[in-house]
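task queued by scheduler; priority normal; single chain, no ligands, no partner chains; default sampling; output format set to structure tokens
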Amino acid sequence: MVRPVSLDSEATYRHIEVRPLTGALGAEIFGADLSQPLPDDVFAEIHAALLENLVIFFRDQDITPGQHTAFGRRFGELHVHPYIPSLEGHPEIIPLGGEAPGPSSYARNANEWHTDLTYTEIPPMGAILHGLEIPATGGDTMFANMYAAYESLSDRIRHLIDDMTAVHSVTATKSLHELSSPAQVKSLQQQLEISPPGEHPVVRTHPESGRKGLFINQHFTSHLNGVSERESRALLNLLCEHVNQPEFHCRFRWRDNSIAFWDNRCTQHYAIFDYAERRRMHRVTVCGDKPY
């Protein structure tokens, strides 16, 4: 388990270079070779950079699946997805994309703002995505700062949602098209058996930084508790639209052997579906803790 890291606004990095991408979140990290075991002081600075910038990026990291999982394990236990297929010989790695050109069904589903696996009781701490084969154009990923989204709400809205909970479900945004065959319906039933809907606070306290951030998303949040269906829909729409402001965002342009590592507890991301070429990636997911 990763210990809490204390950061101040004058954080100093002696072993890596941290170049912020935007005023909202995101930074590129230089001076770390993730194919090699990281000294403790380098790891501590990478961890601090993640907490400070919410999502960090590395370039030119030609790593093996074993090196990928070894890096992830420095941050905690690795998650094994209950039904998305894993890479052969590496149950902790989810391969995204395939031999066919164009976006996979997973990529299409990720083409909206979301936080990973919030339909589970204990959502992940973070995810480490390694770009193996990147389209010449398109396929960027956007990230949003949920601290900033929460803090920029009016006092009255914050007071309204501070103690609310929401239901998250893997079925929240399934379309009729995705349920058009008996096989699709059966698959969905199996997913619900493995991961039944769960409840989380609408405003989550980050266990390491102590900051509060919005913890709803348009992909998995089904409804808010304690209000009518119409009120829930209206308030969820307001919050999700609020997240979709450029002031909260950064956008990452992938290259082969780039890595993105985001803190799933205080961000959302959006994998833009605007490419026709093959886009192949590996993802490692770090286990988290129950939101509060």
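post-processing summary
- The first strand starts at residue 17 and ends at 20.
- The mean pLDDT is 91.
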